[in-house]
């Protein structure tokens, strides 16, 4: 069995014992390394030259990619982080020094010893304990929105208090993590806050009361998308809705201004049906 093809099938990085168990011979492994078709990463791990850099790094450290790093790799909404987040069992040891954020924690779900990426459930449990509530909520809601979480399965697991709170609070409607920030931040208004409501043929990000619409622009709101958004905003106004449109950095870095716009609109009664 060709060890290079086997390694590629296993994601580009594989352990020696796994390759041998699947039919690769020691001689063919040595030849593949000599021919530079495989690279030895140390401690019985091999990689193809074009292997994913993050997986290679995890293999060299003896860890798994987890927490927000794993969430981002699964296509979930996350805020940028300065360092990769990895996980290791409490009695595990790093093979070399690293600037990665290491989570020394017993996994909720047993980890495959051949894996270099954590399970999504384990990663989300770490997100719950590691990240601020709003960021963690956005990640969990992104997973629910993509259908990657099963609430009933999670309810049967021994979740910690942070993960249990997120399981209770998270909803599957947010298309963007920015939308997940609004409900917890505005709950004190004691007004109906309804995300992802269909109005005039399209979803709106948040409907406050009966008539106040908040739309959140991500980086994709350009060109054709911008024209479609402008047209939809105009239709909403013709139907008697008031639209507040804000962008990514306003929500992340200038929330007081965003909140002032919303509460001023509420004070003017723009969230109510006008007779």
TrEMBL record:
InterPro entries: AbiEi_N, DUF559. Residues 5-49 form the AbiEi antitoxin N-terminal domain. Residues 193-266 form the DUF559 domain. It comes from the Bacteria. Transmembrane segments: none annotated. Pfam families: AbiEi_4, DUF559. This is DNA/RNA helicase.
